[in-house]
Amino acid sequence: MNFKxxxxxxxxxxxxxxxxxxxxxxxxxxxxxxxxxxxxxQPQLSKDKIIKKIEDVNSKNIQSLRLRENITVSYKAKKKxxxxxxxxxxxxxxKPTVAKITYSIAKQKETVYVTDKYVYSKNGKRWVKxxxxxxxxxxxxxxDKKQLNKLRKNIEQRFQKYMSxxxxxxxxxxxxxxxxxxxSSNGNYLVSLNNSSEFNNxxxxxMLAFVQTVASKKDTNKIEKSLNVNNFNxxxxxxQNTYKLKNLTLNLQVSFNKEFNISVDVxxxxxxxxxNLKVPAKVVKHAKSAK
Length: 291
Hints:
It contains seven helices and twelve strands. With 291 residues, it is α+β, with helices and mostly antiparallel strands. It has a twelve-stranded mixed sheet with strand order 7-8-9-10-11-1-2-3-4-5-6-12. α1 crosses α4.
């Protein structure tokens, strides 16, 4: 299962960019890092062998999961402290793909179902469905098609701009490979990367590389002066005997311009406990095609 496609939201993307980078590069490919860990039911293994076993087991066997994400933004405005909280829960399975997404902002709560063919969402009290692969390009005027192509080209250029900063991403990956730790506790391996000033600075630079794809150089420089990564922690809990992933947690705290404080908490768990996930029959039956 591709964890990267689960990550949504601009800030969440920045946070989970590191999560994806860490899981796909540090945990999976830390073959050169070596350290001893204490085990109880088997001989001691080097860190790289433990991580390799974890990857071998979980890359093929995870077919469903639950992912929860809480984002809290606190900010000052007119000498008042304000807070916005966004909560998201995603339950997803593969073959065929079905996802149930529940999110809330303040008191507003919504549920969306996604399959390979349709997105089901509520419009008031009524369920509507829209084809995932439905292309309306042919219905567009020549002017609209030109604008659409311009937008696509702009997105490609911004992506290439981000990839041009690959040395920053590589530095982050190299750091995680060399500093990830593996310990054992209560029959589990804990694969973790903990907060440090060096890592926080690398993470900040990675975020700025992402920001520059959507902002001018002048604005990026302003953000750089006031952006601070205050805390980052990442832990995978893995069964020590089976090497199956039990849960994954990530916490990121960022401040901006001494007025905004942003906290992102991500948890992935319940692996292979949702293989029977389906869009409710009543939703499929009554959903009307979106116009």
